[in-house]
Structure prediction request, 191 residues.
Amino acid sequence: MNKIRIFGATMVTIAAAIVATSCKDKRSTGWQYAPNMYEHIAYEYDQKNPNFKDGKTAQLPPSGTVPLGFTRFDYPNTKDGYLAASGEVKNPITNNQSNYKEGKLLYEHFCSPCHGLNGQGDGTVVQHGYPAPPSYSKGQSSRGGAMKDLTDGKIYHTITYGVNAMGSYASQLSPEERWKVIMYVHHLQTL
Ligand code: HEC
Prediction:
């Protein structure tokens, strides 16, 4: 009996000691499992770094370099960029049935809610009050000229940057997917 009491009293004292000492330093993380996860050896990108001339960890890539798998589109989001792209940028993708079919599917998912399945600017979102885009075959572009005459470059520029009430689709559609969609938009321009 006595032994059990002594054991019990010891346990209570230990528990009390743990409770009393554990919260002393509020900023301490206490015992850490795998401390390298908290204090790692690698530099954080926003940390000072004596290994570089400007003392920063986040370095700009050397000028003129392109990330692997990145497709360049050096036309700014301006009217001039739009017109320059119109004259110089051509669809690099083969015009075949499978690309066309994929383009149709992508168009139906990403564009038809506003532009409508037949490109007449009457999608479901528009029927609920969103500003209507002009018809691809019969409308006029807000940047001049008929919608049916929109070139590869103009449409690619529009998908990449958006225009007015239309947002950019650069993060949803890869360059290759944009070109597939454009093949289908060209079809809608003839309706
Ligand atoms: C949220 C609705 C919405 C979606 C989704 C949308 N658009 Fe638009 N789009 C518009 C509106 C509104 C305009 C007219 C903008 C203006 O000229 O003021 C427009 C204009 C355009 C134009 C004409 C640009 C010009 O130069 O006049 C093209 C081409 C176009 N969209 C293509 C697309 C394609 C391709 C997709 C799908 C990847 C798409 N849009 C998705 C709303 C949308």
About this structure: The pocket of heme C is lined by residues 110-111, 113-115, 125, 130-131, 133, 141-143, 150, 154-155, 158-159, 163-166, 169, 181, 185 (CB under 6 Å). The chain has a mean pLDDT of 90. The two ends are 97 Å apart (CA to CA).
